[in-house]
Amino acid sequence: MTTGKINVSVENIFPLIKKFLYSDHEIFLRELISNGTDATLKLKHLTSIGEAKVEYGTPIIEVKIDKEGKKIHIIDQGLGMTADEVEKYINQVAFSGAEEFLDKYKDSAKDSGIIGHFGLGFYSAFMVAEKVEIITKSYKDEPAAHWTCDGSPEFTLEPADKTTRGTEIILHVAEDSLEFLEEFKISGLLNKYNKFMPIPIKFGTKKEKIEQKKGEFVESEDKENTFTEVEVDNIINNPNPAWTKQPTELSDADYKDFYREMYPMQFEEPLFHIHLNVD
After folding, report:
1. What is 2-202's CATH topology?
2. How far is it, in rounded angstroms, from Cα 84 to Cα 157?
3. Residue 276: what pLDDT?
4. Is the pLDDT of residue 126 over 90?
5. What CA–CA distances, in Å, run from 60 to 69, 141, 208?
6. Which of 110, 116, 104 is nearest to 78 (CA)?
7. Is the pLDDT of residue 258 over 80?
8. How many helices (H) and strands (E) does the chain have?
């Protein structure tokens, strides 16, 4: 196990202060989701040019709340980090992972959609957390790493038993930020900041009815179509909004759905109804 102090020098502390000296602590989720998106888009790019010899698959970002344990989990299936990369991008807060990546792949990555600055944005987690953990495994064939810090310059870095590619960030929520353990609060923030992020974001599950056509089940004597309720991932964003498509690809239903996404309040049920009786 490695222990040490995070290297925050005078020349690199000012970007942190400038970017995160806000009274509004809710930006932490936006930043951590952006980091997970970056990690996923970077992996997509590396697999597309043949540098990452792994299957990209259909990755998602998942947000989970452990209200009893006072924890928030943000999990991605992106390129992950090695222990050396954790040391470089997290402990030595003088680098911008995205800038370095784009500099190396500036020609081929120009249109890859990579945003954000992993490392700097990550520290917004301490706005709401008294302790933060990172459990990460790189797409490279190297052991997983587990980083822990309580908000002081002290940290620990040790091997982890994670076997799947990607990164899990665990926020141990501070007593003055317990509001962020409420589902409605996190759901609201995800819809506010991440509605159109390019990677699907899962927040819990939901029930959906699936139609079973006549004759699908021999044992059924019902001649009418029936519906079965199943539990599916609750994907809170639209990774492929209307503006990413050609007009010829859009139907009237697509335009209506887009309007509903942009102005959801207009489609909510009123809290009460007024009935007028006219004689």
Report:
1. Heat Shock Protein 90 (3.30.565)
2. 10
3. 43
4. no
5. 24, 21, 20
6. 116
7. no
8. 6, 9
**Percent of residues in the chain assigned helix, strand, coil, to nearest 5:** 35, 25, 40
pLDDT digit string (tens) for 167-195? 999 999 999 999 999 999 999 999 998 88
Residue carrying structure tokens 């202060």: 17
Q: Record the tokens describing residue 86, joined without a space.
A: 């954790």
Sorted by sequence, the CB contacts under 8 Å of residue 41 that are 6+ apart come out as 78, 112, 113, 114, 115, 198, 199
Alpha carbons within 13 A on the beta-carbon side of 53 = 2
- Token pair, residue 171, equals 């926020």
Mean pLDDT of the chain: 77
Contacts of 170 (CB under 8 A, 6+ apart): 71, 72, 73, 132, 133, 134, 135
Q: Can you tell me which residue has the tokens 């954790």?
A: 86
Looking at the chain, which residues constitute the CATH 3.30.565.10 domain(s)? Answer: 2-202
Residue pair 195/181 in contact by the 8 Å Cβ criterion: no
Q: Considering the entire predicted model, what is its pTM?
A: 0.73
Beta-strand runs (E) in the chain: 2-5, 61-66, 71-76, 129-137, 144-149, 154-160, 166-173, 201-212, 226-235
Q: How far apart are CA 28 and CA 126, in angstroms?
A: 8
206: its two tokens? 């939901």
Can you give the pLDDT at residue 182? 97
Measure the CA–CA gap between 194 and 191, rounded to whole angstroms: 6
